[in-house]
Amino acid sequence: MRQPIRLGMMVVAAALVFSACSSATTTPTPAPTATPAPPASATAAANTSAPTATPTPVIYTGPKVTITWFCCLGTGEDASQQAVEKQVVADFNAAHPNINLVFELNPYTGARDKLSTELASGNGPDVVGPVGVGGSEAFHGQWADLAPWITKYNYDLSEFDQSAIDFYKQGGEGQIGLPFAVYPSELYYQKAMFDEAGLEYPPAKYGDKYTMPDGSVVDWNYDTVRKVAMMLTIDKSGCDATQSCFDPKNVVQYGFEPQRDDLRGLGAYFGAGQLLGSDGKTAQIPADWAYGWKWAYNGIWTDHFIETNSVYQSTAFNGGGYTFNSGKVAMQENFLWNVCCITNAGRNWDLAALPSNPNTGKVTATFNADTFRVLKSSKNQEAAFIVLTYLLGEGSQKLLNAYSGFPARKSLQADFFTQLEKQTDPTTGKPVFPAKVNWAVAIDGIKYADVPNMEAYMPAYNATLDRLQTSLTRWTSTGGLNMDTEISSLQSDIQKIWDKAGQ
What we know:
- By secondary structure, this protein is α+β, with helices and mostly antiparallel strands.
- The protein has three domains: 9-183 and 367-448, 3-Layer(aba) Sandwich (D-Maltodextrin-Binding Protein, domain 2); 185-273 and 284-352, D-Maltodextrin-Binding Protein, domain 2; 461-501.
- Helix content is 35%, strand content 11%.
- The chain is built from 17 helices and 13 strands.
- The chain has helices spanning 9-23, 79-95, 108-121, 133-137, 147-152, 162-167, 191-197, 222-231, 263-268, 287-301, 309-313, 381-392, 396-403, 416-422, 440-445, 461-477, 483-501; strands at residues 65-71, 99-105, 127-131, 181-183, 185-190, 210-211, 217-218, 234-235, 251-253, 331-335, 349-352, 368-374, 406-407.
- The strands form four sheets. The protein has a six-stranded mixed sheet with strand order 2-1-3-12-4-13, with helices on both faces. The protein has a three-stranded antiparallel sheet with strand order 10-5-11.
- The radius of gyration is 22 Å and the shape is globular.
- It starts with 8 loop residues before the first helix and ends with a helix.
């Protein structure tokens, strides 16, 4: 059976933490993956400084070719990010007269299908990214081995930890990627909402307890989050979700938003796991995921502190891709890449420790990693490699800031948060982020990364993701379901998909 794709990322994470903490004056942290990072008006790369070490450019001297850069299987579609990406393309073309780099924007929601169609028609792109593990596994076996080009151009890998390089060299496919950015997860929260409710802030450090309004000191777990989130969920009359006067049909502020891009991710915050059993063919539902799914379902339909799908998709609440970014949600669990697009949430938010699973006492902070890849089907792999080295090298500082990505390149790690905090809104000139953010908790969360990672390899990857999305939409849109029956049906359907694919 193929090894879980993220297993090596704990080693990568540890190496990044060591190098970051040993060289930074601020508190560095890792960042984004291939998950959507919607609208943000203020992630301008114009607010960046030069890296401490300039990567040596790799020059292509072959005949002039056109290379297409495909986006966005993950982050990258926000207007502010597009401005940076287009500038990077212009800079590249100015420095490489023999390569015409073309940027192809595809919104995240349809990017996977679009790339599948292009590949099937024989008109696929050359370079894809930023893309995380899940987005890459959706096209398993279609990525080019970079080793021949690394050797030919004597490409300098000394700026990366060896463990980070080896992470992209597994499964017998060769060196199918190189490190770019990593993203831990953390709890986002709105200080003013806690202040108004007379509640203590979530713990700033892992292992700290939480003090309830009655003075009792309790574990910071999902039972506690449920109670706190209900007190932070307010209807238009000012009643909260713990009161008999509360009207769940007229909520103006919600207490909690789970990470809901993928059912696997939602479940993984309650415990690490994967759908593929140890025999390499049997579908399984990790017990912690089932518990987490039920917890969230009850949070939507019984306790009402999580938005329904219709509210989540509404203009009123979905002001920045995630409802927390609208400034109308008190807490959210998400990856570091979300800071790219959080400006609509105001400047009074902060980061805190994620809660533990009350059944196990364990904290799980799911982990993402992004890079750029070259497709095997590219007719100009050599030129595509040159583009790749530029995106990972000379263009990386601008892109990392635009994507809120913690750099894998060691020379860029120390100044990451310093530069992030210096960013200003190009329309107002005001700082994008609060004056002081608890960035340290993001790095601390790496110790709790999910291993195996929720995006680990599984058969019929795309078809399975589609089936998972069907359940995610159904559970967030329909009340009164028997979740045990729903989860059993999901497992059965996934097994049928895999069995059919294996015939």
